[in-house]
Amino acid sequence: MEIYPMQDYGPAMKGMLIGGLGIFHVFLAQFAIGGGFLMAYFQFLYQTDRLKSGRSFTDEYFRILVLISFVIGALTGVGMWFTSIQISPRTIGVMVQEFHWIWAIEWTYFCLEIASGYLFYRYGPRLGNGLRLQLLIVYALAAWFSLFYINGILSWQLTPGDWLEKHTVWSGFFNPTFFPSLIMRTVTSLATSALVACLVINLSHYEPAVKRELIQKATNLLLPLALLLPTGVWFFSVIPEDSREWVMGGSIAMTLFMTLGLVCSLLIAAYAFVVLKWQKLTLNAGTATLLLSLAFLATAGAEFVREGVRKPYTIREYLYCNSLRQDELSRLRQTGLQNVDPYPVREKFEKHGEILTHGAKVFRFQCSICHTRNGANGLASLTQTWTDEQIRLNVAQLQRTKAFMPPFAGNARDVEALTQYLRYLRNPQTFEVSADSGRADVLARINHWLEDVGTTPGIELAKQH
Amino acid sequence: MFPLELPFATQFYLDLYVVTFVVHLLLMFYVFAGTFHLAVFGGAESTTAAGRINETVRDWLPFALSAAITAGIAPLLFIQLLYQFDYYTANVLLSHRWMSILPILIVAFYGLYLLKMKLFVKTRPWLDRLIACFVFLCILYVGYTFSENHLLSVQSKTVWATHYASGRIFYWTSEILPRVATILGQAFSSTAIVWYWQISMQQRQKQQEIPQDLPRRLAYLSTAGLIISLVAFIYYCLAVSKNWYPGNSTDEASQLLKQPYIYLYVCGLFFQIWWWATIAIDPQRISFASWFLAGASALTLLMGAMVREQYRVSRIVTDNLLQLHQHHLMAEGKWLFLAFTIIHTLLICWLIYVTRKAIHASVQQTKR
Ligand code: HEM
Fold first, then answer.
1. A78 in ligand 1 pocket by Cβ < 6 Å?
2. Rounded to a whole number, what is the distance in Å from the CA of A78 to chain B's nearest CA?
3. A211 and A96, same structural domain?
4. What is the DSSP string of A273-303?
5. A286 and A379 in one domain?
6. Where does a domain end: A319, A347, A371?
7. Does residue A257 belong to any structural domain of this protein?
8. SS3 A409
9. In whole angstroms, what is the distance from residue A158 CA to residue A239 CA?
10. Quick check: B161 and A78 CB within 8 A?
């Protein structure tokens, strides 16, 4: 087993880092993908004499797209990769090993996207309609196909499907959530680009009548939002049962994020249908900004849920969040964690250095991916009121404590060291090791708890009950 | 195929890595040399060679950066397969420092757009220069960080543990500066040719004369860069030989010297220096020399990249890794990748062709 060094982000949970960046990146990517279709649509309307200002608006919209999406969108994309490496090199390693050709194919689409995009940006205003439309269609398809490919890899993390047995690229790629999430992401992309367009139109120099016309056409791209509900149902019917339960109230944070995403999307859809299409009203800059913010929140909710519902795995039934495979975890029960992690501990302990260093390493190795010490989801406060025995039991049977935690990987001595470390975190100044720590009967009890629960994941245990 | 006496699978990924890496380098060089030129010679009159270079790079730098980044993604993918553990470890050890290149690049990007829009050229030229200097430093910082990360990734586990314990986010070794100079010194020779082609094309399209002093200027810049690179390389070899790991040293050195790459690389540098020198003497020669100088600089980079990989392979490739490569190569999708590479390359060429043709036609029309 290869052990990576782990960085400490203080009070910030690692999931927050990747989720936080993910929201920006996904939102910008949606803008770019939907934007391609929107511009091709406007150019087409212009060519068929149905939208006079279609051509000039397309040029304006593309300039903004290049300035925002080609810069921040592209670099947050690389940023997602880099952040994933920082947080869990093992996970990204498996993803790259399994799907590198998919990623390589996606990269050829990036190249096509950049080439067609810059040709349009640079020469578009001087080109004839036919060529403009061709460039826009190539651009839109290239951007959409990059979504197609990355969607296969991301949805595989949650529902690896047949891949768990076959281990072939395509069995993982076309997994149970592939199509519902592809449709949902496509629909949201179209909606995002339409809302950005409404904002741009409002801020542009067109006559009010022209603005109205442009907005009417742009908001047509909100109509596919109607698909969101049925595909959402489809999505939730194919994800694992336990994940569904987290979202339906089993984990309140998940439920809240999910509700946030859902409510925001529904509000946008309702506004589109009732106000824009039925009442034929238009959209001013303020409302466009508001709806765009709702879309951003919807993306945020969806990304957090996507990151969250995989627990306790990063790759469902294959790799735990703390980068351990099931067989490695079972082995660590026998061998213990002592001497596994070659990286020293940076904290300085005034007293009881040996056991606290050991405990700090156990924390870093197994818990730090989801918990901090004193910050977000901090273990010091989660265990604040617990007795020593309570900590020992709950850590030894971690998967029973909460089914979305992995089973504990280590032996009784590791549990004991972690217990002392958690106690230390409550109050470092006055900390003293528990009087019974290390006693044979205590270790035997912990051992009994460990053996009692075994290494079956909590989600399996829940099914058995 | 570049044989490094490695098993097929490793060789295969290595070749893909090396080729895509050289493309990344060529584009990155344009950005580096361009921002350098704007920062140092930004005040040149627009009729002079320096001024024309500035005009050209202002216009093209944002695209070049975009292309350099996009081209960087492919080697980023293959390097993760090739070196996996060591590469990731270096990334994690550098931590925020490694991640910082991304916001820096975003800032640099917008700086380039400001330069392209020429917002301050007339009203506040000092501000324009300041932006150029700042962007240049950003780019230098990114390049430096890549070298730092590379060098950290080939260190021993003991070095990693010490680095981690210290909590530092900068890694220092005497190899870094000569390495950066060796690589970036070559930026001018390949970019100079692109500048020459771009400015020649402007002559055809916009009837703008090629400034008389252009070939000489390009020759001076390139020769200076190449000499710096060569000197830095020699110094680097000396620094490395002092840093050899005990017990490993003879092996690594003989590995490098056994293969032809290091000799071809040095010959390539000399060849380019010599030809640029003849251009400095007789500027007319540039029109035909540009073609094989372009070839020579690309080939030199390729040879340099091979030396670079030899060095890394000898340090960190284990039998276990070789077996993993064998295993990964079985993954499906390679033929599809190959097919899409060809299709998309052709498609991009075709789009460029038809767009240029259309633009050319419209220029002809307005002339009439
Ligand atoms: C303008 C910005 C950039 C500059 C100046 C730059 C510069 C460099 C330099 C100097 C190296 C060689 C390092 C060495 O061998 O010591 C390098 C390698 C590399 N660059 Fe870039 N780079 C830039 C942006 C990027 C981006 C955004 C990516 C990723 C998408 C990227 C991907 C790579 C990769 C994968 C390598 C190989 C690293 C290795 O082998 O250790 N580069 N870059």
1. yes
2. 8
3. yes
4. IIIIIIS-----HHHHHHHHHHHHHHHHHHH
5. no
6. A319
7. yes
8. coil
9. 7
10. no
Q: Alpha-carbon distance A318 to B155, whole Å?
A: 31
Tell me if A326 is assigned to some domain.
no
Nearest to A160 by CA among A329, A22, A312, A313: A313
Q: Which amino acid is at B255?
A: Q
Distance from the alpha carbon of residue B72 to the mean position of ligand 1, in angstroms = 6
Q: Is the pLDDT of residue B253 over 70?
A: no
Which of B14, B25, B28 to probe ligand 1 with, by most ligand atoms within 8 A of CB?
B28
pLDDT tens digits, A400-432? 999 989 999 999 999 999 999 999 999 999 999
Which of A71, A72, A78 most suits a substitution to test ligand 1, by most atoms within 8 Å of the C-beta?
A78
pLDDT for residue B4? 67
Q: What is the pTM assigned to this prediction?
A: 0.96
The stretches of A318-372 forming alpha helices (DSSP H) are 326-335, 353-362
Residue B62 CA to ligand 1 centre (angstroms): 17
Task: Reply yes or no on whether the pLDDT at B249 is more than 70.
Answer: no
Judge whether A453 and A407 are in contact, CB under 8 Å. yes
Q: How far apart are CA B264 and CA A129, in angstroms?
A: 50
Q: How far apart are CA A394 and CA A401, in angstroms?
A: 6
Q: What is the CATH number of the domain that holds A147?
A: 1.20.1630
Buried b (16+ CB within 10 A) or exposed e, A433-461: bbeebeeeebbebbbebbeebebebbbeb
* Structural domain that includes position A128: 14-319
> Collapsing DSSP states into helix, strand and coil, what is residue B211?
coil
Residues A338 and A285 reside in one and the same domain? no
Rg (CA), chain A: 26
DSSP E strands: which ranges in A163-213? none
Q: Ligand 1 within 6 A of B192 CB?
A: no
Within 8 A by CB and 6+ apart from A400, the residues are A394, A453, A458, A461
Helix (H) or strand (E) holding A313: strand A313-315
* B366 contact partners, CB below 8 Å, separation of at least 6: none
Structure tokens at A109: 């689409």
- Alpha-carbon distance of A54 to B30, in angstroms, equals 36
Q: HSE-up of A241 (CA within 13 Å, CB side)?
A: 7
The DSSP call for residue A320 is E
Of the candidates A101, A243, A256, A98, the residue with the CA atom closest to the CA atom of residue A159: A243
Shortest-distance atom of ligand 1 to CA B32: 5
CB-based contact A107 B344, cutoff 8 Å: no
Q: Do B336 and A101 touch (CB under 8 A)?
A: yes
Q: Which amino acid is at A130?
A: G
- Confidence band of B1 (pLDDT split at 50, 70, 90): very low
CA distance B28 to B36: 12
Residue A342 to residue B159: CA distance in whole angstroms: 12
pLDDT in tens, A160-169: 999 999 999 9
- Measured between alpha carbons, how far is B263 from B132 in angstroms, rounded to an integer? 37
Confidence class of residue B244 from pLDDT cuts 50, 70 and 90? low
Is the minimum distance from the CB of B312 to ligand 1 under 6 angstroms? no
Is the separation of the CB atoms in A422 and A359 below 8 Å? yes
Tokens of B332: 């499906």
Residues A294 and A344 in one domain: no
The residue assigned the tokens 């009442």 is A279
Q: How far is B229 from chain A (nearest CA, A)?
A: 29
B24 CB near ligand 1 (under 6 Å): yes
Q: Where are the domains of chain B?
A: 8-331, 332-368
Distance CA A189, CA B317 (A): 43
User: CB of B187 within 8 A of CB of B225?
Assistant: yes
Does A301 lie in the same domain as A417? no
ipTM of the complex: 0.95
Q: State how far residue A111 is from chain B, nearest Cα, in angstroms.
A: 7
- At A338, is the pLDDT very low, low, confident or very high (cuts 50, 70, 90)? confident
